[in-house]
C-alpha cells in the first residue's frame, strides 16, 4: 500500500493506548485514516467516526469506504468474539481486505477471550495479522491500575512473584501495526511482540524508583488475593483471568524476548528506562 492508494484505514480504539499511536503514525506517513471511538473524538489529520462494539447501528458508517482495519477488542469483555465476529463478517461483506487484530502474547489462537477472534480471522480475510504483545510498559505510566497505585501508593501489587516479562512499548506495537496494515504483503501470521529485555516487577519497581526519585515497592500477593483485589474494580471472571496471567508469569511463561519489533521496523525495541524517561 502506498500514499496514493485510495484505500482508507479504519482504526478502532483510536483514542486508546495503541490505537491512538497507530492512527498518529499512519497519519504522519500520509495514509487516510478513519479514527473510530465511542464519541467520534477529533484526531488531528483523521476523519472521526462514532463507533461502539455494542452498538451495531454504528458499524456501517465506520466501515464505509474502508479497505483495512485495526481491531482493538472491547476492554474488559471476557467474550469479545460475541460482538467482534458479526462486525468482522460485516466488514468482509463491505469490502475490507485486510484486518490486523490486537491480541496478547498470553492468549494463543483458539484460546480464551480474543483467542477465538484470532482463530476466525484467517477464515474471514485473505490478508491478516494478529499482534500478540507482551504486557505494555504504559501500564506503569498511563491510566492502568498499576500506574494509579504507583502514583497514589508508590506501590505495585501483583501475583507474578519473581517472574519476568518482556514488557513492550505501545509505540513499538503501533509501529508494527502500521507495517502490518500498510506493507505490500500482509504478515499472514501472528506476531509476538516484546521489549529488548525481560524484567521482573521487582526490576520495574527499582527502575521506577531510580527514574522518578520516589521509592516504589512491589507487593507480592497470592493468586486469590490478587483476584479479589481486581474483582473490586471489574467482573470476577475477568479479574480471575488477569490474576491467572500473573500466576503464569510467576511460573516463567513470559520470561523471553523476541526480535519482532526490530525485524519489522528496522530499529531496536525501546527499553523500559527509555520509555520512562520519554513519557514521565
Question: Can you give keywords for this protein?
Answer:
11 helices, disordered N terminus, 280 residues, seven-stranded parallel β-sheet, 40% helix, alpha/beta, globular, two-stranded parallel ribbon
Would you kindly provide a written description of the structure presented here, covering whatever features stand out?
- The structure is a single chain.
- By secondary structure, the protein is of the alpha/beta class.
- The protein has 11 helices and 11 strands.
Shape: globular
Radius of gyration: 19 Å
What's the tally of helices? Answer: 11
Give the structural class: alpha/beta
Strand segment count:
11
Q: Largest sheet, order of strands side by side?
A: 3-2-1-4-5-6-9
Provide the fold topology.
Elements: E1 8-11, H1 17-28, E2 33-37, E3 47-50, H2 59-63, E4 66-71, H3 81-93, E5 98-102, H4 115-124, E6 127-133, H5 145-153, E7 155-158, E8 164-165, H6 170-182, E9 190-193, E10 199-200, H7 201-212, E11 217-220, H8 223-231, H9 236-250, H10 260-265, H11 272-279
Parallel strand pairs: 1-2, 1-4, 2-3, 4-5, 5-6, 6-9, 7-11
Antiparallel strand pairs: 8-10
What's this, in brief?
By secondary structure, the chain is α/β, with parallel strands linked by helices. 40% of the residues lie in helices and 17% in strands.
